[in-house]
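Recall that a protein's primary structure is simply its ordered list of amino acids. Everything else, from secondary elements to tertiary packing, is in principle encoded there. The following example makes that idea concrete.
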Amino acid sequence: MYISEFAKFRRGEDWTDAFAEAAKVIEKAGGGVLKVAAGVYETGPIRLVSRMKLEVEAGAEIRFTDEEDRFPAMELEFEGILELCHTPCVYAEDAEFVTLTGEGTINGCGKAWWDRRWANALKHNRPYLVCFNRCKHVTISDLTLTNSPVWTVHPLRCDDVTIKDLRIINPYNSPNTDGIDPDASSDVTIQNCYIDVGDDCIAIKSGTENTPARRPCERIVITGCHFMHGHGGVVLGSEMSGGIHDVVVSDCVFRETDRGIRLKTRRGRGGEVSGLRACNLMMDGVMCPFVFNMYYFCGEDGKTFYVSDKAERPVDERTPRLSDVSITGVSIKNCTSCAGYFYGLPESPIDRVTLRDVKVSYSGDKAEKPAMMFDCPEMKHAGFYMRNTKNVTVADTDFSGLEGEAML
């Protein structure tokens, strides 16, 4: 059925009640397909239900209002903390077999939200553009998603998620507009997506030390994607207290992202990251292709001496761990800072790192800090910088324009 069949519930140009009524009909029927034909549909939040497929056809645009009071506050996790957030634009909770698809556009009209963020004038956290919370068997495909108020696609505590063939476009200076953030979720596949955003393109997360019920994010496959202009192409953390395991990144292109593959954590977060495989990647204009930083000064306690101290500390539940990283078959052009920055903790070194068949060429004449941490050195055209690492294998690497040693 088409949303136009519910036009009698429309209030002027506002389709919010029409979408709500259609979802009720589908829920009562035990499932169904709701199609949105070509045209512009202005609306408030849309809630999806189990066995519902929302198909936004070519030429159709779902355009969300930017009026703050149209998105009531609800308890939802943001950056690992359960707090009041504005209701997401498209939302499903405790649902299964939910599909969001079509060749149309979902527009979050985020500028007003960004302005409120910059002015510190928000009552609650901004709404996600698409959020599935505690859902199973989720598919998101083919759409153009743009102008998200904050993170664009957020599978939170979900199982069996397929995200494919999306175009995600947010302005380069829009705050916290991550592309896709799998969070405490399992069995997630992200493929053939074009992501050009104002923050991390993909960020894999699993809660913080303040998350009440931590759960790992695991078995994540990212393949055939194109990343543009983000702070990082594929990022792990900084919320990783629940652990992140078994992540594969393959056949992807990174262009002008600040960093390529990036892990960020610190003392206090705890959690373990293990089993990262990255292969067959192309990077161009990336400041630092690989950053694994265990001194990232994130969160409320991130600037304490406990976090920044370079001396060895006792190992306890607050100590993060990182092991089993393999990076093979990477072509890097126009790198500016260093080929890779690996900085573990003295009490918790980064363990078992393999770098093989990595080709690097450099451009530019500006020294830059590759990582966000205290006392990070500025570097230009440098090789692999490693501190507090062990069991490192480097083979078949090649540098053009390197200044200094390949291994620092």
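The chain has two domains: 1-168, 200-408. The chain has a mean pLDDT of 97.
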